[in-house]
Amino acid sequence: MSAKVFKDLTEDEISYYYTLLTEEITSYDCGTLCKDDNDGVPFCCVTENAVPLLFKEEFSLLESRSTLWSVWNPIEKDSKKLINEHDDEGTIFCKCKGVAFCERENRSISCRTFPLEPYIDKRGVMVGLVFMKEFSHGCPLIQREFDIRQDFIDQHFIFWEKLLFRRKREYDTYSDSSKSYRRDRTKTKKNFPILFPSHLKGRDYLLKYV
Questions:
Q1: Helix 11-19 × helix 56-65 angle, to 10°
Q2: Which of 8, 28, 136, 196 has a CA between 20 and 30 Å from the CA of residue 113?
Q3: Residue 81 placed within a domain
Q4: Residues 6+ apart with CB under 8 A from 166
């Protein structure tokens, strides 16, 4: 499918996506798992740990709603390298004012979905969510898969289905990362958790594809 089949995202679409990302990830404040080791700030709320990547239309929308967000302009060499290597013109690295000023309704998609991403099976079909392995040593929630609420999984599955259909670049990115998960599994002989939405849980036919 050509990347030019669809026009760019719109602010109205972003607003709609936000309505699909309102469920809390756990029944408790997961920030309590890591903030004591990060000067009282949850791991994912430290920009240097996990830089939020916003769609440009998303940043424009949030600018119109709040003063919470700004473009990320780091001074560190490694951080500047990350920006220089970024090649998606449709997205931009941003930062917020910090957890003390968080506005729940104005969190970015990156904030709302962390630390999970879509998993695409061998057929090229999204079947669930997986933890972002690059944060496995920073986010303790990644070791607590059973704490993730099913309502969160179900709601986010719908969001990712819509976004992957809408943005081929996202589909390609997560298709590649899913292949990487499978390669690591073959090499290490260790399984990784796949969080299935309610309508796919217990479907044994999926086992040969995941």
A1: 80
A2: 8
A3: yes
A4: 6, 9, 13
In a domain, 84, yes or no: yes
Tens of pLDDT, residues 103-157: 999 999 999 999 999 999 999 999 999 999 999 889 999 999 999 999 999 999 9
Burial of 156 (0-12, 13-18, 19+ CB in 10 A): buried
Return d(Cα 157, Cα 140) in angstroms, integer.
Answer: 22
Whether 6 maps to a domain, the answer reads no
Number of domains in the chain: 1
> What distance, in Å, lies between the first and last C-alpha atoms of the chain?
23
Tokens of 98: 């910090």
Residue 2: pLDDT band by 50, 70, 90 thresholds? very low
* 187 in a structural domain: yes
Measured CA distances, 64 to 93, 107, 184 (Å): 18, 13, 43
Q: Which domain holds residue 96?
A: 11-208
> Count of CB atoms within 10 A of residue 22's CB?
13
Q: What is the pTM of this model?
A: 0.91
pLDDT at 5 over 70: no
Q: What is the pLDDT of residues 172-194, one digit of tens each?
A: 999 999 999 999 999 999 999 99
Chain mean position to CA 91? 14
